[in-house]
Amino acid sequence: MQIRDLPYADPGIPDVRSGPRFLIWLSRHQWSGQLKSLGWGVLHMAALALLPVGVGLAVQAVADRSGDRLAAAGGVIAALGLLITVGDTMLHRTAVTNWITAAARVQQLLARKTAEMGALLTRQVAAGEVTAVSTGDVEKIGWFVESLSRCSAALLVTVGLCAGLVLYQPELGLLVAVGVPVLVLSVLPLLPIATRRADVQREKAGRATELASDTVAGLRVLRGIGGEELFLGRYRRASQEVRKAAVHNARMWAWISAVQVALPGLLMIAVVWHGVGLARDGRISVGELVTVYGAVTFLLFPLQHFVEIAMAYSVSRPSAKRAARVLALRRTEPHGGAAAGGAPVVGEAVLPPLTGDLHDPVSGVHAPTGAFTAVVCGDPDLGGRLAERLGGHAAEQQPSCPGKEPEASVLLGGTALDEVPLSTARASVLVQDKDPVLLSGALEQLLDVPSSGG
Predict the structure, then answer these.
(1) Spatial contact of 411 and 417, defined as CB atoms under 8 Å apart
(2) 313-332: buried (b, 16+ CB within 10 Å) or exposed (e) per residue?
């Protein structure tokens, strides 16, 4: 999949049973891009890992005063440099492609779910939650998907390099082969703590986003009751909690980075110390010592990828969980009709669209067929309830009180909308959000065109 081929003709049916399952499903559908990124990553890192071999050959050639071998070592270094350039360029290209295509797939899934749910979406999940998922969470999920192949390439090259060092120089190679797993496993006790702190930060950030979205949505009501300052104060406190959680989370990742710098440094000191002793005894040459030292220095590079994939998973797992929760939403319809995911129930009769006059016996609203009818309500809440009733199945959104008789259903051509499947009611009556999105404010100000002076 290339960027020019977006959007997807069919983004697929996601596995929304959990956040990790959604990440696995997404990575599996990116297998072509993942293999390309893995191949270029192995080429790039293998060329980097072999660069100390060329340097060691050059140093040994200088020590032996051999011009031919020095020229050959220079040719090896130049060839490796060319492979590093090509591999790095293509790895970056494929990694960015994986990130964009994965994010685009999630965006398409969210857009499809939004269109499927319609107005029911914000009744089952907060508007701020949907906003947070479609913005920040999509980026974090894409980050994990694209970093997965790079981490796999780093793992393969690291294992191959350790095996090569054991064969090339057994004493120092065994020291490196034992030390590298210790370096990788040293951060494991810190990762659960970092993950919990990242979850807390993400939760607080989501609450702040939901609060901001709800405040903006209800700004007209807040102004009427004088509650703007109250909600602004709540948002300030929520923002400070997000800041504190972010600092708390960053402090733990700083400790993890410090461990990843300090322990490889200790391993390098141990290799150089032991290698100098072997060189003094004549058991290894100077060129071999330089080669092993360069290989240990290179190992700092793949170790950074291991930390990155751990960080990417810790921040993408809660993001994937939130995305899966939104994508798992389904329409509920006790009268039959559309089942989960909007598909018609097998064996249920599909009714044709209803026609006729629209009449609400409760409010007295009557809309004749073929006539343009507008209803104005001074109370916004009353207007919202009336819109739900005219669309049918309003009782599904607002449970009736115990002991209270249910209100009479709206009639369309003499047929009660509450007694027909929701899909049939929606095919005849369209319910649109009542919030003033396109034209908010006075029409005189919105439609006033400045004079050209002519």
Answers:
(1) yes
(2) bbbbbbbbbbbbbbbbbebe
The pTM of the whole model exceeds 0.70: no
Residue 227 vs residues 215, 218, 223, 230, 231: alpha-carbon distances, Å: 10, 10, 6, 5, 6
Smallest CA-to-CA distance from 310 within 188, 183, 205, 416 is with 188
Please name the residues in contact with 251: beta carbons below 8 A apart, sequence gap of 6 or more: none
| Dist CA 216 CA 98 (whole Å) | 35
3-class DSSP state of 416: strand
34-43, 320-329, 431-440, 443-452, range with greatest mean pLDDT: 34-43
Q: What are the CA-CA distances from residue 46 to residues 9, 131, 292, 413 (Å)?
A: 37, 42, 15, 74
Cβ atoms of residues 244 and 199 within 8 Å: no
Contacts of residue 432, defined as CB under 8 A and 6 or more positions apart, other chains included, come to: 387
Q: Left if phi > 0, otherwise alpha if psi is -120 to 50, otherwise beta: which for 351?
A: beta
The one-letter amino acid at 65 = R
> How far separated are the first and last CA of the chain, in Å rounded?
55
CA distance 92 to 98: 10
Q: What is the pLDDT of residue 235?
A: 79
With beta carbons less than 8 A apart as the criterion, state whether 328 and 125 touch. no
CA–CA distance, 307 with 412 (Å, rounded to integer): 62
The contacts of residue 384 (CB under 8 Å, 6+ apart) are 434
SS3 state at 358: strand
Cis bond upstream, residue 7 (ω within 30): yes
Per-residue burial over 160-177, b if 16 or more Cβ lie within 10 Å, else e, is ebbeebbebbeebbebbb
Phi-psi region of 228 (alpha: psi -120 to 50; beta: other; left: phi over 0): alpha
Q: Which pairing describes strands 411-412 and 358-359: parallel, antiparallel, or unpaired?
A: antiparallel
Nearest-angstrom CA–CA distance, 95 and 93: 6
Over residues 121-126, the mean pLDDT reads: 70
At 227, the pLDDT band (50, 70, 90 cuts) reads low
379: Cβ–Cβ under 8 A, 6 or more apart, which residues? none
User: With b meaning 16 or more CB within 10 Å and e meaning fewer, what string describes 278-287?
Assistant: beeeeebbeb
Which segments of 281-397 are extended strands (E)?
A: 358-359, 366-367
